[in-house]
Amino acid sequence: xxxxxxxxxxxxxxxxxxxxxAKDAVMKLVEYxxxxxxxxxxxxxxxxxxxGRKKVMMxxxxxxxx
Amino acid sequence: xxxxxxxxxxxxxxxxxxxxxAKDAVMKLVEYxxxxxxxxxxxxxxxxxxxGRKKVMMxxxxxxxx
Lengths: 66, 66
Hints:
Two copies of one chain form a homodimer. Chain A is mostly helical.
């Protein structure tokens, strides 16, 4: 089951030009986004540790996204 | 200003091992996710058009993510 809020994703899709979107298309995108959150967060936690910190900072996220 | 709901993103980060996260780190990740939604949706709209459809389907999203 999706963890992210679905409606804001669908709204943003509509504003980006997808006037009609199948429900499972939105869910697929949400699933992808959740996977990216997990991948980026795991990297960022490792980067924070590497820098001797417990707290994940914006610089960790910036580096993890690259 | 962020369009996605912030709290579910933060919750998912915490469950992925980021016990302490700076607020601007969460916001940076949300900003990245919003950018990905726009990029993927734009591609998916083009793919739906290419297939002679107005409605964006899951197959368009699958292809756009790749």
